[in-house]
Amino acid sequence: MKDILILGIETSCDETAAAIVKNGRHILSNVINSQISIHQQFGGVVPEVASRKHIENIAGVVDMAFKEAGLEYSDIDAVAVANAPGLVGALLVGVSFAKGFAYAIDKPLIAVNHLQGHIYANFLEHENISFPAICLVVSGGHTSLLYMKSRGDLKLIGETRDDAAGEAFDKVARFLGLGYPGGPAIQKAAQNGLAGRYKLPRVFMDRNNYEFSFSGLKTAAMNLWRKSEKQGDANISDLAAEFQEALVEVLVDKTVRAGLEYKVNTLLMAGGVAANQKLRNMLKKRAEETGLQLYFPALQLCTDNAAMIAGDAHYYYINEQFAPLTLNAHPGLWSL
Amino acid sequence: MHICIGSDEDMQQLGRQIARVLEKGDVLYISGELGAGKTTLARGIARGLGFTGRVSSPTFTLMNLYPGTPEIYHFDLYRLQVGELDDLGWEEYLEGNGVSLVEWPLVAESIFPGEALLIHIDLVEEDYDRERKVFISAGGKRYMQKLEELNEIVNTGH
């Protein structure tokens, strides 16, 4: 059978990314131009700045993806792009570029949901993932548990009612002056600290459902910090460690419980917060104890990238699910 | 007017009461520090306008749109600098067919409409465990009237 080569493009937030993936499995190139250093000074992504940077970067990033893969434009079979969800101005840069590019080389266009791409990052690396599975999607905009009956069949079983996990990390990091992005910043601070010296609540909401709430934990952490500052015994590493532990414990508990109750064999994790070491270790341990098979993407595939977009697109290609050149970006399509 | 709020539930209840005086085209500015309860209040308002889904501060997207009656545009301007407002496309929302809730409005002070309901939430003695003080004032005649209606609703409980 002839190899299928797909170019993926991803510009939903602060990374301009392009990748070429063969047969939905083999990453031939994976180029990411991050704007994090630019957004650091703002303490978060600024949409207009992000859009402008995407425009400056996209052509070079795509060219680099071809160069690294050692391919010509005409070698690829389709152009895939993340068109939802994200910042509309940022998404539009990728969508517009992909449309123009697909038209110019006369190849089909494929639209991929960015979040679904995150989930399928698992499939780039792992063969024979067995279904049904429970998938935890944790990022700056999301904290969702999904029941996956098969590769394309996803059902949302619970999500956060307020802040996403990554958002809680960002806000608490900002409050503590630890910088952006908050997840890595807190993880780093926590390395020198001990969880348990401060006591933060584990917010389970109802133990019988799969809903999350991190807004209360965020406020509790900030309050505790203020009080201990007043008392003069503030230790930022200890607070970071306790905050991380409190958040991760709830994520792990609900994910494992969903796995057991839905009687699946497999747990999947996806999204930027899936790069958190504490979360990876704790979930791994609990999965082993309960006999569930756990998969998560390699660190560089947890954060935004285009290989996951090109990988996911492979299955659209096989099923001939192509997008028209009138394709638009959808910022608000947060659900799958 | 100013109101003392003792819990999350009370904050949402206040939001539902505020929602009763709102209509298409209304603008609300909600200020207060991180963790003060701005989003909780916004959630109450959204509930009062008939939206039952997830309400969270749009830190990532800058604006969330909720299909309430009328539509709700929930802004979070925390990270923005003055010059960056231009490209947000806010005019079509703030001057449009829904209710706009704007968190961290300071950066937009001289740019967004001055006629609005202004809500400020204060912590008491910087303590997150304690009650909140909510100050509500009006900019412009139309909102003065709304403020009076709201005062009536809050005082009588219905």
Molecular structure report:
The complex is a heterodimer of chains A (336) and B (158). Chain A is built from 11 helices and 10 strands. By secondary structure, chain A is of the alpha/beta class. Chain A folds into 2 domains: 5-119 and 302-318, Nucleotidyltransferase, domain 5; 131-264, ATPase, nucleotide binding domain (Nucleotidyltransferase, domain 5). In chain A, the strands form 2 sheets. In chain A, strands 3-2-1-4-5 form a 5-stranded mixed beta sheet, with helices on both faces. Chain A has a 5-stranded mixed beta sheet with strand order 8-7-6-9-10, sandwiched between helices. Chain A is globular and about 65 Å long. The two termini of chain A are 32 Å apart. The mean pLDDT of chain A is 91. Chain B is of the alpha/beta class. Chain B has one domain (2-156): P-loop containing nucleotide triphosphate hydrolases (Rossmann fold). Chain B is built from 4 helices and 7 strands, in the order E-H-E-H-E-E-H-E-E-E-H. Chain B has a 7-stranded mixed beta sheet with strand order 1-7-6-2-5-4-3. In chain B, a hairpin with a 2-residue loop joins strand 6 (116-124) and strand 7. In chain B, helix 1 (8-19) crosses helix 2. Chain B is globular. Chain A binds chain B through residues 13, 42-49, 51, 85-87, 89, 140-141, 159-164, 167, 170-171, 174-175, 215, 218-220, 222-223, 226-227, 331-332, and chain B through 34-35, 39-40, 43, 54-57, 59-62, 64-65, 78-81, 84, 86-88, 126-129.
Which features characterize this protein?
heterodimer; A: alpha/beta; Nucleotidyltransferase, domain 5; 2 domains; 5-stranded mixed sheet; 10 strands; 19% strand; B: 158 residues; alpha/beta; Rossmann fold; 4 helices; 7 strands; 27% helix
